[in-house]
């Protein structure tokens, strides 16, 4: 027998063994498949199909609780808050974000920006009573990053 013929036979046999091994080695157990008889019954009335709802119609608006939770968790990590501080920070953030989302419904941009500055000052005063001096300085330094974190909750 020639060497090339031997190689062809060897690789063919190896391929057969490999494929059968892969086919039967799923869980190491034989699996019995139950068959179920299904009767097809004609439908007398047409099935009502829901109209396609646009993505904008499904959206309920910004979620202040999710945003407050996300921002408070970030603040907990960056400011190293204890549990009591974390709960108070969450409450302050939730109140701030609810007011912010309500403020953003205002059509006049100048008035909206003026109110937003007032809301931020109110939030800062509340947070200053919860955070220590070092934590508050870090919070103020990270304010631009926090603003970017809120953006996905507006959309």
Please provide a brief summary of the model.
It is built from seven helices and no strands. It is an all-alpha fold.
Task: Walk me through what this model shows.
The chain is mainly alpha-helical and 155 residues long. The longest helix has 22 residues, at 3-24. The protein is elongated and about 90 Å long. Helices cover 68% and strands 0% of the residues. Mean pLDDT is 74; it is low at 29-33 and 46-59.
Total E-strand runs: 0
Principal-axes geometry comes out as elongated
Helix-strand string: HHHHHHH
Low-confidence stretches: 29-33, 46-59
- Taking the alpha carbons of the first and last residues, their distance comes to 74 Å
What structural category characterises the helix and strand content? mainly alpha
Largest sheet: none
What is the number of helical segments per DSSP (H or I, 4+ residues)? 7
Proportion of beta-strand residues = under 5%
Determine the fraction of residues in helical runs and give it as a percent range.
Answer: 55-70%
Radius of gyration: 32 Å
Q: Averaging pLDDT over every residue, what do you get?
A: 74
């Amino acid at each position: 027998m020639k060497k090339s013929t031997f190689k062809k036979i060897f690789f063919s046999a190896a391929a057969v063994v490999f494929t059968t091994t892969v086919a039967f080695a799923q869980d190491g157990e034989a699996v019995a498949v139950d068959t179920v008889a299904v009767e097809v019954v004609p439908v007398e009335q047409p099935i009502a199909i829901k109209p396609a709802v646009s993505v904008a119609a499904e959206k309920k608006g910004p979620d202040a609780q999710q945003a407050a939770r996300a921002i408070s968790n970030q603040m907990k990590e960056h400011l190293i808050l204890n549990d009591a501080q974390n709960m108070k920070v969450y409450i302050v953030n939730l109140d701030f974000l609810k007011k912010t989302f309500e403020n953003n419904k205002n059509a006049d941009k100048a008035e909206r920006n003026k109110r937003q500055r007032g809301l931020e000052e109110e939030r800062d005063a509340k947070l200053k009573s919860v955070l220590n001096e070092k934590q508050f300085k870090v919070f103020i330094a990270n304010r631009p990053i926090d603003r970017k974190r809120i953006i996905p909750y507006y959309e």
